[in-house]
């Protein structure tokens, strides 16, 4: 079982993804924006972080950059329904800043769980527990 932090401003997204991960055997932590997510990360040190891109207070790209500074080895999955705004592809930008995987909302929950588990399996020693 891994500990996974979900950062998303939409409660229904947090609840839906959290339930899918709990059903898959993971412990889930939640935050409503990047600033809160960094606080939870600092206190709990989860194995993997899932973050939305477009959020109030502190958006996802800034959150990814700060998480990379704090924990360069951390696996991060970025999710976004915004995708491309003003010719900026936020999912691609998130990958450039260190996201291990990116999913465009909406996505099937089985695909989401597969991506999370693949990232956990690929984590360096001491990061998360491989799941079969």
Fold blueprint:
Blueprint: E1 3-7, H1 11-23, E2 27-31, H2 34-44, E3 48-52, H3 60-70, E4 75-80, E5 84-85, E6 88-89, H4 90-96, E7 101-104, H5 109-121
Parallel strand pairs: 1-2, 1-3, 3-4, 4-7
Antiparallel strand pairs: 5-6
- Classified in CATH, the superfamily is Response regulator
Task: Order the strands across the largest sheet as they lie in space.
Answer: 2-1-3-4-7
The helix/strand order is EHEHEHEEEHEH
CATH topology: Rossmann fold
Please identify the top-level CATH class.
Answer: Alpha Beta
Gap between N and C termini? 11 Å
Number of DSSP helical runs: 5
Assign a percent range to the helix content. 40-55%
* Main pleated sheet: 5 strands, parallel
Give a structural overview.
By secondary structure, the chain is α/β, with parallel strands linked by helices. The chain is 42% helix and 22% strand. It is built from five helices and seven strands. It has helices spanning 11-23, 34-44, 60-70, 90-96, 109-121; strands spanning 3-7, 27-31, 48-52, 75-80, 84-85, 88-89, 101-104.
């Amino acid at each position: 079982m891994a500990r996974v932090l979900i950062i998303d401003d939409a409660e229904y997204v947090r609840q839906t993804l959290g339930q899918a991960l709990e059903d898959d055997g993971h412990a889930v932590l939640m935050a409503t924006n990047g600033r809160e997510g960094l606080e939870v990360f600092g206190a709990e040190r989860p194995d993997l972080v899932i973050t939305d891109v477009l959020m109030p207070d502190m958006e996802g790209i800034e959150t990814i950059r700060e998480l990379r500074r704090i924990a360069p080895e951390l696996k991060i999955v970025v999710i976004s329904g915004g995708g491309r705004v003003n010719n900026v592809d936020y999912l691609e930008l998130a990958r450039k800043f260190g996201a291990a995987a990116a999913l465009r909302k909406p996505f099937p929950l089985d695909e989401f769980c597969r991506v999370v588990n693949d990232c956990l399996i690929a984590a360096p020693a001491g990061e998360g527990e491989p799941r079969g």
